[in-house]
Amino acid sequence: MISVETYGITSFCCMYPLQNGETEMEEIKIYTAGDSSVLIQFGQEIAPEINAKITAFVNLMRAQHVEGVTDIIPAFTSLLINYDPRVTSYQTLKNRLVKLIRLDVSKEASASRIFEIPVCYGGTYGPDLDHIAEHAGLTPQEVIDIHCSRDYLIYMLGFLPGFSYLGGLDERIHTPRLANPRIKIPAGSVGIGGSQTGIYPLDSPGGWQLLGLTPVKTYDPNREVPILFEAGDYIRFVPVSEKDYLEIKEQVDNNAYTCITHTKEV
Fold this sequence. Notes:
By secondary structure, this protein is of the alpha+beta class. The protein has five helices and 16 strands. The chain has helices spanning about 50-65, 90-105, 130-135, 140-145, 240-255, and strands at about 1-5, 10-15, 25-30, 35-40, 70-75, 80-85, 110-120, 150-155, 165, 180-185, 190-195, 195-200, 205, 210-215, 235-240, 260-265. Strands 7, 8, 9, 11, 12, 14, 15 and 16 form an eight-stranded mixed beta sheet that branches. It starts with a strand and ends with a strand.
């Protein structure tokens, strides 16, 4: 591993073995980001492999309890680390990060959670389902089946508290956003925006095509942990009937519902 620092940017050329015995060079860079933040760039491509490295590094930092760090915010290809300059300096934190990066935990197996999210599709719950199906040349049921056929990796959270940016939507149901966004989309709405799918955690304006609604509160400021999941977890959409939806919603409103979760080795 080679470290070079130029104009306040530290770069690490990490060498990973390939199957044929050769090595692949991948550069990890550390940038200053204002007077109390550091940005670590793990790559340029949105890919599960990059996300796995970021998730592993987040887990390592949490286990290490790095002094002075106030927040760790993962994104598609980078990690923003906020720190308290009254507790630690940029140089001290950077030196600690360099040591952690050299540990290279990104190849170690780790367990992620898979959250089963019940969704009532179509009708008043998913007013754009028929349009999505027509755009794809499929039936509404085929769209539902495809949408529920895989586990979606949460690359990052943003836009709204608990809004998850998911990867892996089947190309067959990619659908352009609405030409005229809605003024209000109900919390729990499950939509498709271009090549992405996701859940609106709060009532919000938005331009995604809505195919269903979940009674699960993915964000609840009154919970001990307000946001249900985090980057590196997975979401599995599960279709439910209107009757089941209403029963689950009642449980949610009474704080008596817990999402079914599974463990995924990655």
